[in-house]
Design a protein that fits this description.
By secondary structure, this protein is an all-alpha fold. It has seven helices and two strands; from the N terminus they run ααααααββα. It comes from Neobittarella massiliensis.
């Protein structure tokens, strides 16, 4: 089982950055990684782990060595794309005259429910497609 430092080091190498740059990007002290490297710390707080997992697009379980393969996660770009698609859907729902739900005009609650369901569907589809269509050479574990 890999240590947290080994996993972080590998993720940084995959991205072509140094651990110090990761710390600067996330607002951590460089000693955070140094402590892991020297064995003074074995793990980090859940807050730090969450920030690192979002930064690299991996799960916290992967960081901790509980998963051998990186599970696909949504990147900031994916989230922006989904937000744009939802905005387009929202505008089309608002401009659609005569939209009915069980014979009644579409209420704000119903519109919001539709948008939330679409968001869940878009996120699930994006993750499924990442898993299915990412070439094996980019799936490092």
């Amino acid at each position: 089982m890999r240590t947290l430092y080994e996993t972080l080091s590998s993720l940084c190498a995959d991205r072509g950055i140094k651990p110090g740059k990761m710390c600067a990007d996330l607002g951590f002290s460089r000693s955070t990684v140094s402590d892991l490297k020297m064995g003074r710390k074995k793990t980090l707080s859940s807050e730090y782990l969450a920030k690192i997992s979002n930064y690299f697009g991996v799960s916290v379980d992967y960081l901790l060595g509980n998963e051998t393969e990186k599970a696909p996660t949504l990147t900031k770009k994916d989230e922006r794309d989904i937000a744009r698609q939802l905005e387009t859907l929202s505008q089309s729902l608002e401009s659609g005259e005569g939209l009915m739900f069980d014979g009644d005009p579409l209420s704000d609650e119903a519109r919001e429910s539709i948008l939330q369901a679409m968001k869940l569907g878009l996120e699930a589809a994006k993750l499924r497609n990442k898993e299915k269509y990412t070439p094996k050479k980019y799936k490092k574990g």
